[in-house]
Write a structure and sequence with these properties.
single chain; Arc Repressor Mutant, subunit A; two-stranded antiparallel sheet
C-alpha cells in the first residue's frame, strides 16, 4: 500500500532527515576525536611549559614537557614515567603512576628488567646484598655511574644511603 504524503508531511520528513544526517555527522566527528584522544594523537593541553630558573646565572629557562605517549611501546612509557617521577623509585611506584596515567594495570617488572639489560635503567643495590629496591635512569648518574645526582634523590635518600654503601647495577 503506497501512502500519499501531503506537502507538509514531506517537508517535515525532509527536515527530520536533514537533522538526522547532521547529528550522524556530529556523532562521527565525536567518535573520531575519542579515538584520537585514546591513542594519544591529540594534545588537550597535556603538553606543559615549565619555567625553571637557572641557578648559575639566575636566568629563566622555559622547558616544554611533552604529553604522555599513550600509543607508544610500553618501554617508552616506562622511560617517560621515570621522567615524570624524576627521582629514584620503587617498581610499585612506577606501576602505580602508569596505572594513574593510562588506567591500565600492567606488570612492568620484565619491561624494567629489559631496560636494565640495555643499561637505560639502573638498580640501586646496597653492597653485599643481592636485592635492590630503587630504580633510576642511567643518565641520572654521574662520576662514571657511581653516584646519583642530587636532584634525582628522594627526600631522605642521604639519610638511608651513602655513596660508598651502594652500587648501581
Amino acid at each position: 500500500m503506497i501512502m500519499e504524503y501531503t506537502q507538509e508531511t514531506q517537508l517535515i520528513l525532509s527536515s527530520l532527515n536533514k537533522d538526522r544526517k547532521e547529528l550522524a555527522d556530529k556523532l562521527s566527528a565525536i567518535d573520531k576525536l575519542i579515538k584520537k584522544i585514546k591513542y594519544g594523537s591529540v594534545n588537550l593541553g597535556a603538553s606543559k611549559t615549565i619555567k625553571v630558573i637557572n641557578q648559575e646565572d639566575n636566568t629563566e629557562v622555559i622547558e616544554h614537557v611533552s604529553p604522555f605517549p599513550l600509543k607508544a611501546d610500553l618501554k617508552v612509557q616506562v622511560i617517560k614515567i621515570f621522567d615524570i617521577l624524576g627521582e629514584a623509585s620503587k617498581l610499585n611506584a612506577v606501576a602505580a603512576k602508569h596505572k594513574e596515567i593510562t588506567g591500565f594495570h600492567v606488570n612492568l617488572r620484565e619491561v624494567i628488567r629489559n631496560l636494565n639489560r640495555h643499561e637505560i635503567l639502573k638498580l640501586i643495590q646496597p653492597k653485599n646484598n643481592s636485592r635492590g629496591l630503587y630504580w633510576v635512569k642511567a643518565e641520572w648518574l654521574e662520576e662514571n655511574g657511581t653516584r646519583l645526582k642530587d636532584k634525582h634523590k628522594f627526600e631522605g635518600f642521604d639519610l638511608i644511603y651513602t655513596d660508598d654503601m651502594i652500587e648501581f647495577k
